[in-house]
Amino acid sequence: xxxxxxxxxxxxxxxxxxxxxxxxxxxxxxxxxxxxxxxxxxxxxxxxxxxxxxxxxxxxxxxxxxxxxxxxxxxxxxxxxxxxxxxxxxxxxxxxxxxxxxxxxxxxxxxxxxxxxxxxxxxxxxxxxxxxxxxxxxxxxxxxxxxxxxxxxxxxxxxxxxxxxxxxxxxxxxxxxxxxxxxxxxxxxxxxxxxxxxxxxxxxxxxxxxxxxxxxxxxxxxxxxxxxxxxxxxxxxxxxxxxxxxxxxxxxxxxxxxxxxxxxxxxxxxxxxxxxxxxxxxxxxxxxxxxxxxxxxxxxxxxxxxxxxxxxxxxxxxxxxxxxxxxxxxxxxxxxxxxxxxxxxxxxxxxxxxxxxxxxxxxxxxxxxxxxxxxxxxxxxxxxxxxxxxxxxxxxxxxxxxxxxxxxxxxxxxxxxxxxxxxxxxxxxxxxxxxxxxxxxxxxxxxxxxxxxxxxxxxx
Length: 460
Prior knowledge:
Distance between the termini: 40 Å
Helix content: 40-55%
Number of domains: 2
Number of strands: 21
Strand content: 15-25%
Number of helices: 17
């Protein structure tokens, strides 16, 4: 049994294993230790938002999970997710992980849907709210909030349906470039291809049926940073400079002013183009170092130098990473979206912020602004091609595919079905993809809202 709110490296405080359980035939093997459950719940109930309960062979007899849920509900009134509710197939480990992830997602999903419902009411829209599931089907909002993990890959599912509709192709591969990731999946006869295995969420295997998908942590908001003259993309997400500068114009001024950072100090969180801003998330059980650093971060974008002058000490990269992971701090930095603004291939936001950022990073990478932006764009395009080909040729080693994608050969890979590109800036990558992959590359009209189109089509 696990309480949902689990800080880093201290999950043992928020989980407990108790005696109880049934045999594979559904007969009680050990009686349930309710006293230990009550003691645990009493200890953590003010520090968690939900509970997960999962036991061996609960699919054969869920009696102990139900008793545990009844106790927790009486004591706390908080949501409780039981493993047997999520899957009726064997696999205690995966079922337990699925229950745990559901409990973690419940508070986030609830806040999200309350915000959506409030906005719909504010606009005077009289409509029934529905949620897409991982497999492309739809479910009512009340049911979706009971099992939020089943909606965790709804973005790719909606994109698949939308791409097929917009491209007027019942069989196609789809590359969906989002802010956080690039996802590749396939539509066969107007239906998403479903994986035989449960979806993997954050590296954890689950019992959730989902579309088969190849994904990478490289999207429009992936952080571009430099160290030892090398350029890295991701894996962390940041708010693009061009987007943030549209809201905080002082970012451009601070970029031009520059920071006193030595090349030897550079790292993912110590960058001359990175800013930090306090979120509205309330902290829970911070370490002394986390509390100290968080107190120095304000509700306006601060550079590493700004934070340094507040206490004459550089912020600890590890402590900063922890605060970002806990969603207490939002990072702003140079991204692949900024690279496209520098190259003039996308102009949705503040291009000046992007160019100044590229010039600064270029200094540390021995490149000019256009060179570093071009390198980032080239890397993103090759990553898209790599994902696509890894999906199609899933029996080949990624290293072999990578050699072809990044090599200089007189041949390459051929794909028989059309490849549809979706996402805000994907028009910038059409020519690159045509060079990297022998396939019909389609950029449909309204590609930037293909996801929304898919959500609408899924209702029919």
